[in-house]
Fold each of these.
Amino acid sequence: MRIDVPDDVLEKWQNIVDTMAKLIAAPASLIMRVVDNDIQVFVSSKTAGNPYRVGDRERLHQSGLYCETVIRSDHHLLVPNALEDDDWKNNPDIKLNMISYLGFPIRWPDRTPFGTICVLDNKTNAYSDLHENLLMQFRDVIEQHLQLIHMNVQLGIAKAEMEVLNHQLQILASTDSLTGTLNRRRFDEIFETEWRRAAREKTALSLLLIDVDHFKHINDDFGHLRGDDALKMVALVLRTMAARAGDVVARYGGEEFAVLLPNTSSEHAQQLAESIRRAIARTVLFKVEGGDITSTVCIGIASQVPSHAGDPHSMLQAADTALYRAKLSGRNRVEI
């Protein structure tokens, strides 16, 4: 059965591929869809140098295309340079000068293939772990959309629309509208729950408090809209890096974020915090005439095995104290 993707979802997918192309600095970012026996360009980034047009399609079976392998293997594919790879040097995308590829499978809720999400570059590109995590996060968002679409078909439009609306309202009530992370109220609720769970199961719980260094200068020098862009990018890095099931990312206030890490030791929390600090320092928050704008963060860490006699507020205070030490020690630091 052919299931249509609603226009409002297509708009979100267009934003996804445009964002991917921008963040990875690649000329082409695509969502491909299996249509009968063909593979079709379903959504294509609006980027300079992108040779792929929506509606372009090829026979899928034995096509030699990157996406055929992704769909057939149901696994991601990374080709840093097809010209240097005997398995890929003659694939059809070479004719379009697309020599590097990173793609992941997209599946319907019943695990049958919908298509792929991918980026392609006209130069050698090995892509980073951050790029791979980014694609996986966006792939998960798309599969969530497909699950809702499939639900609409199975349950009937009227009933499904009501359920989707209620779900969206719940999300809106718990989400920070600027960054897409959880808001402080919802974070505090989850923190209480995870504290009790960790105390019951006697497992480690870790908390990171993250503050953007000299954020006031960004607002003063470039304006609050650019400041908002910076916060969105920081949030995206945090959601990409803290991506395990159970990890919680929230905007805790202003330019401060919180990351809750269930079942995570102090050592592993420090390793993740350092990875986040380095990733944000390398991330372009936004572009202005004359260059790229970057920034750094301070991170305070608190880790413990909670007890029923304690409360999460003490852990929050410990993380806040560590964050304050990081600021006093020169910023762009992790403290515990």
Amino acid sequence: MNKRRLLAVMMSAIVVIGFVGISEYRVRTELKSTVVYFAKQDIPAHTEITESMLEAIDLPLKGLPPGIIYNKKDIVGKFTQVQYGLAQNSYFFQSKIVTQDELMDAARLKLHDGQVLWTGSVNLVEASAGNVLPDTDVDIWFSAVETEGMDSKWVIGKMYEGVRVVSAKNKKAEDIVTKNTTNTVNSNGETTTPKKELYPTVVQLAVEDEQYQMLTASLSNAFKDGNIILVPHNKDAKAGIPELGVTGEFDIKQYIKSKQLNLSDFIAKNKESAASGTGVTITSTETLADILPQKSNQTKGEEN
């Protein structure tokens, strides 16, 4: 009987000790502190976060909301979203701050002095099956249909070489590289893998004013079935297409310019018509045959 009582007392003691141990462990775990970073000040939208904007404090890990960033290196150098900033004493959540490349207007921030942003839609072929990516160079080709009377002929040529791509996005204006390589964290702190989108539908190029004018004009109604084609640039290829001027049969810029309305002449004719009370008739300019490089007399003699 005494042995049974002794065994019962020992078992009770083990249970009590175990319960106390587990309770103490839970208390220590819940009261375990960790360094948490707060916004030391109001941080406006579209602002790069610097170390001086952060304030660190030790808080119990238990009770902290999910999705908080605990590593200072993952905060400093990132940006607040374009739409909203952070209020003073706010936590830094993974869903609230982004890298520069994840900003909606990240492409604009990559422009050099004197450059503007040209944006155009592309399909699978025009995006070279996913080979047109940010920070790569492309050659720009243009194709269209030239109609003379009842005859229709295709025309294709090169506009520019080595133009820098600053962004390639899907139809939601999301960066195609980030979309395919970056996991996201939802409000519950769960990591989710995004749906893969391998090909961009919108491409943005860093161009100069003259290039912007030429690219935009090439997609106007002056051309039948006008189409811009982006080809990955071969850096080892010999450059042959300058900004202006006809250098060979592949340079198509003069053909595009031949369709351009001379604004100075148009304004002058408008002034004349206003004075005389007559209408203004704008006639067509050169044809493709007029502006293509002419063969030399020697070549023509050889053919004869």
Amino acid sequence: MRENDNNEKTALILLGCPQVPVQTSMALYLAHALNQQGIRPVIAGTTAARKLMEVADPGRYYISEMADLDDTIDAITEKERDFDLCFVFIHNDSGIAYAGTMAYISTARLYAVLFGEHADDLAGEIEFPCEIVAAKAVHNPMPLKRRLDEVMQQWAAVSKH
């Protein structure tokens, strides 16, 4: 079952521990880009990741809904909720585990968004179906922004047909 009965497309942005600085800015940027395409973003993350998002977007201009990471995974597992798209932000092995879980439990089109110093090495560890978006971005978000822009343009072009 999809998120809404009114055919509104939804995207889950899944955030783990916000150790790497670019995660918050890129998640907000992605939420903005999704909103521009008429897709409602939902942020699920750790407490720290959600607090950073709340502080960065206090007026909720980009993010209309945030949820606990584990509660969201439980809801998807129980078939209470699902999404059209899922973007899992990954900078370590636990991020890969979350993405693998999403590949197994969700029907969403899955994007593994890898960043940080070891993005390329982590990308090589992925053994489940997903689209990989990887860039060695730690402090400077621009390499990851460029990769996300490419993927979003491709997705927008496909969804219009």
Amino acid sequence: MSHMQYETRYTLAPGGIDARAMNARIAALDEDLGSDRRSADADPLEGLAAQGRAVGRVGIVGASGFGIGLALRVLDAGIPVTLFELERASLAKGIALARSSANGRDGRMALLAATVNFHHLKDCDLIVDAAPSDTAGKQKLFRRLDQVAKPGAVLATQASHAGVARIARYTRRAGEVLGLHMGSVSMTGETWQIVPGKDTSRTSLGTLVALIWRLRQEAEVCDPCYAFIDVKTPAQPWNIDQALD
């Protein structure tokens, strides 16, 4: 593979799994694609990453441990970050944590803009929700992000499949909403898991994949169209394309 190792994880979906229906669907995909199928050795995310938009600035909502950890990784790649917190005291604690974790790399801190002004997120190409809150809080946050974020900006949440779909309904840009989990440690390093909703666009998914590679991390995508089982299966490009139709 030319990029990081990639695999799709399947997990049991609510309501169980219709094995015959799933097998029939896979067989139909195999037949339809025929000679157009790419080699199993090809990186299935190459095409998607090429369709993604460039990320010039990342917005992070919440100076939590997750938010600061994400900010430092993005800053290490030379990408400016806008860190938003509702309370100045929480923002100050987050900045102090970031500085103490910088390990002498003060240059990257110059790329960090900390703010309590929500509208300062308007120039971000990707905005990640790192704030701990309940369903009502997520609803309010993503409605505000929908109003403030520029067209085409990707909005990421820590939610699972069902949560992504629900959060996407709070916006008028369901194609730009997806889930993101980071920090899962594998044999080859840290894996970042992308959780697309049923309406997430190829462009949005490709944008996040390309960014993860730029941060020199591994990407793992959960396929929302297949019921999940508790094994890992090598991802195939035809599965990804079908999942995002």
